[in-house]
Amino acid sequence: MTDLQEIWNGAWKITKPAGEARGEPPPGFRSSPSPLPPELPKPPVPYTTGWRFTAESHSAPNPTLVTRGCCKNSESDKIERKQLSPVERCLKRPPLPGGKGNDSIRLEVIKLLKGGDGHNSQVFTVRLIAPAASQSLPQEGTELVANIYDPLYFGDDEGLLNPFLCMDKYYTHEANAYKALGELHNCGIPKYYGSYSLDLLVDSTRKRTVRMILIEHVRGMTMADAEPEWFSQNARQHIMKTIVDLESRIYEKDIWLVDLEPRNIIIRSVVD
């Protein structure tokens, strides 16, 4: 028997899209615009091992509407990108409001899984130092995975993408998808521990806000790191059937997985 879990980063899309035919561009058509000048300097990434922070519970708003080009920079956005520093843009463009909760938790970063400048989100393991009064969280000392949606360190494809629209999209879609898939927690996807908000100091008088979700820390190896010869034929068939069955159950909830790849699948154990 194979025990599988899956983790996702910006991989949820709430509405099933209609198929669109895509023809070849005409001769001389320029498929991508010229890149904008480099962004102004950014401060160092704060998400490092040992960093401790407090997060407040937060109710994510409804998933943002997804249309063609919905996350691209407008012409005014491109001008703003050239004139304002990335930090000033973050102060000007906070995340969508949602609802503020009543609980707060204290966390410590253990290990960076994916992050730094130029990433869709900052993903790292954390230790729960001071859990909230809510019974939904595990005991103090438990290791979880935090996924922070920080537009300051988003890779905007040389100015093509709007980091604030992208972060709102990723956060609202993932948080709502995890809530909608509650019956599958620990049965194909990690257990979900809620959505949060945290404030990061900019200077002595200003701070900026980013959103975060917490999920179970699933230990194992990714399918991308596994070699087929490590598994029997029966085990390989069971792995593939488990993935297909899970994707079908998620699709029945009107949720489309747009990043179903081996690197996003964790194999916890395999027993023939």
Automatic annotation (TrEMBL):
Q: What is this protein called?
A: Protein kinase domain-containing protein
Q: State the residue spans of region: Disordered.
A: 1-70
- InterPro entries the record matches: Kinase-like_dom_sf (IPR011009)
Composition bias (Pro residues) maps to 24-46
Task: Write out the biased-composition intervals (Polar residues).
Answer: 56-65
* The organism of origin for this protein: Aspergillus homomorphus (strain CBS 101889)
